[in-house]
Design a protein that fits this description.
CATH class of the largest domain: Alpha Beta
Number of helices: 15
Number of strands: 20
Helix content: 40-55%
CATH architecture of the largest domain: 3-Layer(aba) Sandwich
Mean pLDDT: 96
Largest sheet: 7 strands, mixed
Strand order of the largest sheet: 12-13-14-11-10-16-17
Oligomer: single chain
Low-confidence stretches: none
Shape: globular
Strand content: 15-25%
Number of domains: 2
Radius of gyration: 24 Å
CATH topology of the largest domain: Aldehyde Dehydrogenase, Chain A, domain 1
Length: 462
């Protein structure tokens, strides 16, 4: 039995039956039957209709979905409402993409050997998709993994995070309500690591989608069956370079949102901010003043800005890391302590040593570090000196400065005068180095889950 608990109160909000090895085998059997019956594959027309209806159903239930996100995942309600709306739009992005993605003609006849031939590609589903998801965006991450699979015409088996399975179950329920036949999307609920590994390593899967920790993601990738493609989305330690001419009225709100949104439990959350020493004190004072305006507490309160961490153990870990920074001589002008066993105060750390945890590892909590610098090259070197590379940011009023720094920062996406957690779901989203493998973002995920099948035919006998 899987108990789903409120991260804020610890109360049990749902008890769900978990699955066994026999259940997993039955699930694969159902998915395999869908894939094997080519005459009854989901047509493009049917995929468009059922995804459009799913999005409409989500529109009608935005508040219910937001409440569910806030209850199980502790995302503040104001942000949970945005996630619910964004998830419905993500389903529509799937529709927009598959309406346009119809294959292409390959030009032949350029040599005597290929004269009198024509070729065209067609889209086909890659096969069964196995998706393992994370807790921090319990609806939208599921949409990013499951909706593209349905859009691509793939049967999909999804394992949500055990902390936050309810949003996943509700989304899959909406897909079936919209007309998705049984077998095309199934949920596996388990905390059994062996069963989770059995799901991922089964040779019947064709594509593995993983969102979660680097340690687990890379381990699972190493155990995939031959030929299985995959996409891994892990975390980072996102850097921000602040130039001497940065507009602080733009910078400070960006740091507050990017650093403390969802209590910092975001894979591209603002973590390391490099500021010219001449500006450092002013930035710290204004950031600390901004932190003081954040409402910390119950995620179901519409006024809350920062809620709890997902588990009490995460509070213990972050407290330990912050204590280590303090002991190493870093200044902590605000926060630096737990509010309760489930909530850690929004924290600013000034000049922690480069080698300690808060400077080298993903905090995944409400902590932002400020580092002073005198030379831009030194700031960029330190920003790049971690095993992660995902999204980064530059704040400056000068275009040349922006492009120079952006060109030297590690990362797959560099934001200019915007925080590192900015994202539109149509954008590519790619962790590099230890931050992941492959490219996320709805159009790119659909591409990963399809193959281009080429048909060549001889048109003349000459």
């Amino acid at each position: 039995m899987l108990e789903v608990k409120s991260p804020y109160t610890g109360e049990v909000i749902a008890s769900l039956a978990t699955h066994s090895g026999a259940d997993l085998e039955a699930t694969f059997g159902a998915a395999d039957r869908c894939l094997s019956d080519r005459d009854n594959w989901l047509s493009l027309t049917n995929r468009v209709k059922l995804l459009e209806k799913t999005a409409a159903l989500m529109d009608d239930r935005v508040e219910d979905l937001a409440q569910l996100i806030a209850r199980e995942g502790a995302k503040p309600l104001k942000d949970a409402r945005i996630e619910a709306l964004r998830a419905a739009e993500g389903v529509r992005l799937c529709v927009d993409h598959i309406k346009q993605d119809i294959g292409r003609t390959i030009p032949l006849g350029n040599t005597p050997l290929t004269a009198g031939h024509e070729a065209r590609t067609y889209k086909e589903p890659i096969g069964i998709v196995a998706a393992v998801s994370a807790f921090n965006h319990p609806l939208n991450l599921i949409v990013h993994q499951v909706a593209p699979a349905i859009a691509a015409g793939c049967p999909v088996i999804v394992k949500p995070a055990p902390d936050t399975p309810l949003s996943c179950l509700e989304f899959v329920k909406l897909l079936h309500e919209a007309g998705l036949p049984d077998g095309w999307c199934q949920v596996i609920l388990t905390e059994d690591l062996q069963l989770s590994e059995a799901l991922v390593t089964d040779p019947r899967i064709a594509f593995f989608s993983f969102i979660g920790s680097a340690r687990v993601g890379w381990m699972l990738r190493s155990k995939l069956a031959p030929g299985v493609r995959c996409a891994l989305e892990h975390g980072g330690a996102a850097p921000v370079i602040v130039a001497a001419d940065a507009d602080l009225d733009t910078l400070i709100p960006g740091l507050l949102k990017g650093g403390f949104y969802h209590a910092g439990q975001v894979c591209v959350s603002v973590q390391r901010v490099f500021v010219p020493n001449a500006l450092k004190q002013q930035v710290v004072e204004r950031l600390v003043a901004g932190v003081a305006t954040l409402n910390v507490g119950d995620p179901l309160d519409p006024a809350t800005d920062v809620g709890p961490l997902i588990r009490p153990g995460e509070v213990d870990r972050i407290e330990s890391w912050v204590d280590n920074a303090r002991a190493a001589g870093a200044e902590i002008p605000c926060g630096g302590e737990r509010v309760s066993d489930r909530v850690f105060a929004p924290t600013v750390i000034v000049d922690p040593p480069e080698e300690i945890e808060v400077s080298q590892q993903e905090i995944f909590g409400p902590v932002v570090c400020i580092y002073g610098y005198d030379q831009e090259t030194a700031a960029i070197r330190q920003a790049n000196a971690v095993p992660f590379s995902f999204q980064a940011a530059v704040y400056t009023e000068n275009t040349q400065t922006a492009m120079r720094i952006a060109g030297r920062l590690n990362g797959s996406a560099i934001m200019i005068n915007e925080h590192t957690a900015f994202r539109d779901d149509i954008m590519p989203f790619a962790g590099l180095k230890q931050s992941g493998l492959g490219v996320g973002g709805i159009p790119y995920t659909i591409e990963d889950m399809q193959i281009d099948k080429m048909v060549v035919w001889k048109t003349t006998t000459e």
